Amino acid sequence: MKHIRLIEDWFLNRRCRSCGIPLVLRPGHVGLVCSACRESLSVEFLSGQLCTLCGSPLPGGVDVCRHCTETTPAYTNHRSAFLYQGRVATLIVDFKGRGYKQLAAYFAESLAAIVPDCDLLVPVPFRPESVRRRPFDPVTLIVRELSTVQGLPQVPLLRRRPGKSQKSLNRAARLTNLKNALYIRPGMHASVSGARICLIDDVFTTGATVDECARVLRHSGASRVYARTVAMD
Ligand SMILES: [Zn+2]
Ligand SMILES: [Zn+2]
After folding, report:
1. Lower Cβ count inside 10 Å, N or C end of the chain?
2. Alpha-carbon gap, residue 87 to 136, rounded angstroms
3. Ligand 1 centroid to 25 CA: how many Å?
């Protein structure tokens, strides 16, 4: 009897991270997000007029944003599933900051809708220092789930040398910080040559990181480099 109670408690404690309902009461959940929240969040998918290059929302009548007109990104195009706001922002904080790793499955489901036709998925590499703060790499978890959903190989082709966190830096400082920080893992160049790659990251802020990853991959012979992220800040 005690065991049944414990099992019941365990199920009832597994709640939707968005609305708080016990998941057992709302089947069809994916990665700690109940079926009703998956449905209502899908309405928030980023849509409408977007920059054809970086994917940022634009006023009508323009195809490319001012920033991409001034500096063409190295990636073919970038899209985010969501804007970084409201319930999605809370879910990302739960995932990255509070250790709700199961949310990776929900983010992968959201990304699946915007992954282009490509040969492989490549996670944007984490900074070596961030492993000390967090016992897991959020992007690796998302890419693993996405690889299963899409039936596409995921290959961690890129590495990152230790350096400052990008968070506190402006765009110019980010680019300097990134220069030479990213490189192709030794022995992996053959996988890059001619490949259509989709880079995956969690949050797109200035785009400097995915741009530099794309530049390194293109330089090593990737035929196309797309970028997809969960949310755009
Ligand atoms: Zn819910
Ligand atoms: Zn743009």
Report:
1. N
2. 23
3. 10
Say if residue 153's pLDDT is above 80: yes
Domains of the chain: 1-43 (no CATH), 71-232 (3.40.50.2020)
DSSP assignments along the chain, one per residue: -HHHHHHHHHHHH-B-TTT--BGGGS-S-BTTB-HHHHHHHHTTS--SSB-TTT--B--TT-SS-HHHHHS--SSS-EEEEEES-HHHHHHHHHHHHS--TTHHHHHHHHHHTTPPS-SEEEEPPPPTTHHHH-SS-HHHHHHHHHHHHHT--B---EEE-S---STT--HHHHHHHHTTTEEEPTT-HHHHTT-EEEEEEEEESSSHHHHHHHHHHHHTT-SEEEEEEEEE-
Number of the ligand closest to the Cα of 67: 2
pLDDT 10s digits, 223-233: 999 999 999 99
How confident is the model over 176-204, as pLDDT tens digits?
Answer: 777 778 999 999 999 999 999 999 999 99
Neighbours of 16 (CB within 10 A): 19
* Ligand 2 mean position, distance from CA 207 (Å): 10
pTM above 0.85, yes or no: yes
